Amino acid sequence: MYLASSNFIFRFIQLAGYIVLPVYLMANPPGELVWTEPAFPTQFDDITVYFDASEGNAALADFSGDVYAHTGLITSSSTAPNDWKFVQGTWGTLDEKVLMTDEGDNIYSISYNVEEFYGLPNGEVAEKLAFVFRNGDGSIVGRDTDGSDIFHDLYPPEDGLLVNVVAPANDPSIIYQGEILAVNILINVEANVRILDNNIEIYNTSSVSEVNFDIENAALGNHQLEIIVQNEEDEVIINTAYLVLDNNEETADASETMINGINYLSNGNYLFKLTAPNKNHCFFLCSDNEYKVDLNYQMTKSTNGDYFWIELEADKFSDKQHTYQYYIDGSIKIADPFAQVILDPWNDDDINEEVLNELADYPTEFTTGLVTAFDKEKPNYNWQSNDYIKPSNESLIIYEILLRDFLEDHSYNSLIDTLDYLDKLGVNAIELMPIQEFEGNQSWGYNPSFHQAVDKYYGSRDQLKQFIDACHQRGIMVILDVVFNHAFSQSPLCQMYWNPTAFRPSADSPYLNEVAKHPYNVGYDFNHESVYTKEWVKQVLAYWIEDFRFDGFRFDLSKGLTQKDSGNNGELMSQYDSGRVAILKDYADHIWSLDEEAYVILEHFAVNPEERELAEYGMMLWGNISWDFAEAAMGYDSDLNWADYSERNWDEPHLISYAESHDEERMGYKLKTWGNAEGSYSTKSVEVGTNRMAAAAAVYMSIPGPKMYWQFYELGYDYSINTCVDGTVNNNCRLDPKPIRWDYFDHEDRRNLYDKIAAINHLKRTQACFNTTDYFFDDSDSYIKKVYLNDPSLDLVCLANFNVTAADLNPNFPYEGSWYEYFSGNELVVQNTQESLNFHAGEYRIYTSEPLSPPDGYFTETKQVNALNIHVSPNPVLSGKQIYIHAETNADYSIYLQSLMGDYISISAEPSDHGYILECPDVPAGIYILSLKNNDRTFAQKINIAH
Fold this sequence. Notes:
Shape: elongated
Helix content: 10-25%
Distance between the termini: 79 Å
Structural class: alpha+beta
Strand content: 25-35%
Radius of gyration: 34 Å
Strand order of the largest sheet: 37-36-35-34-29-26-25-40
């Protein structure tokens, strides 16, 4: 006898959807995702499993490639309903063992013997088959409708009575008064069937193997169905429930001050609100009702039908059980679109335990899919920095970070520890690539699913706040990359209005376009002319400003915030779009109403009149000059004019031109791969390449306006954007994790690049001339670049020779007199402003009208030090031994020793007849900087301390 009387078993049977089919018939049972032949398989059987790719989440619907099963068993040793055992199929590979047969019409099959296929040992009882289905590399995965794994029952091997209730398909099912509830029951042998509804018999028949019966005119309220199936030997009793709702349910509105998501009320209660226009009903699922539909937890519909809400007492949520989902129209189970924390049963195993321990437990025994977790008390972070001042737009020096590829443990805590490095580099803003909840864990973040939740892969909400707080204490602003142009299928905004057959948003979605309006779309395209989308965007923006104190936003693909249909025409998409301009101005106004100094940055790339209008309105726009800056650095002809906002006829310096961003090939890789050469001079070498990257930075930073570096530019990062995890380079590996090379900081040439960029950044941050409107960028020569900044406080001339040969260039100094080279401190007395200067290949200089010094002193090559009668020996030197400095005896020098991180190391120096003698301190082996300073000049030399 097989008795399926428990609620859990019954629900499982309905999800699996077993249908009795003759062995010769492969027709798809309507609406079923997975079924088998035989219909009631045991662990000893040869079986064929069928998968309908158009059902469930329909991710593989109409897929043209091979489909693979990823499968396992739930056995007597499983510790949870989703604890797979004996998993078959190597993920992401073309594994022939799990390759399915394409039967046509989205149906796939695979046949095997259960025991042999899974390697089931003697004595182990298999209870269920477990599946997900994938394409070859695992980037597309077919799951159940709610994103969960797919299960199918295995039955006891002894002969007996087996029953499958095909309909009603849900437990409970939900209907309105006057609607019919269909009952469909399949039995493996002829048997007698009785059905009781709230203990009243409504059906009774004998000697049947199938029941088709309709329940009509059911009374309002809860109904408990008891299905009793009997033959001479066995009896099976199955219990399931259904609810009958009133067609004329009362509606009411929540307070106008209530926002979507959770609201903390003054009486200690919570109010939950979900905007879901055109939906019929919604139930609140939580641990208190064991995630079952309960009339006591039916949410109230607003009078206009736009949203649902419910007020609940705090004691409904016990310790570690403050979690919930919404259940809409009897078939859609979602986490809250405005969730601040998501519990993910598929990916949270890779999350740091320190982060998970702060959260509620996932309600494994009650539900599946993504679940919202919330704080029992409204968070109140104790901010330490409250008086920081935002730099002006034109003064920004932004450092763009993908945390996954920046630090080995990809954590906010480690990022805080790295602020010394970034602070010394001289950046005053950090732009985080998307850290909102995205699908999976390994991602750039541009596949968001919950735009208001912090993805736990990088740390907790408090850890993110601690990072922002630490930045503000240093005067470093934090900008958040936001992705409002699209969502992915895991997003509840997609799932609430979804067409599973076409695997795209349904035509009635108030949030998303059924078909994208432009050719650059990924995921699913938002309709930003919808009032519902606007409300959602504005609440999300307010959350990041008010709760996290982000200083601004970078809008990914802002050109995509359009309802003007350009189809596949990218050029048409870029044309002036008044609707798109109005949308972006509206969002910017909302941001500035919350923080009038907030930064609004657009990745736009539309026609110049549209970009100019947005720039004049106060927004900043990305300007991609990556190709030409790399061409210049490699030693080829280049045109850098478009890096200058005035060249675009903009009145405001709101152009963030850049030589590198997350989207572009790395300049260091281009140099070492395709760099130009002349004789022994090759831009492919690290020494020459990093020097030329410094030259590019000098010119780039001298052009007025906000600036941005991509992470590790300052160390000459030279791995391709398409580097694969195995070290090869392939265009398919663009999004793969990249090598994290902090050891580059210990490389002399790369450290010199860091120091030069830090000196340039210091100059930009401290001198008003970088914000002047009286300037000229001379890019008339393909190789020689000149920038002239004129300001009452200081005049500046930046000169660079990007050729691979020496050149005599006319500096065109604005006037005669003394000019001071910033990096070396050398004075140049100009008597003829047109007199040429000779520049080596790749040489660059910055001249100022007043003498200035980089914060760590002038940059002086070793040969220059020796020419001035200063010599250090021995070099290398053993720790604990004496270092001899031979210098002019009549000079009064201060002597310093620094690590490559810029830390000063205590030393004592004794004067001698020929200079100084000092004891080499006991420090770790490596390269250090020994500096001698007097009132006039600074001399420095790298020394190698060994053990």
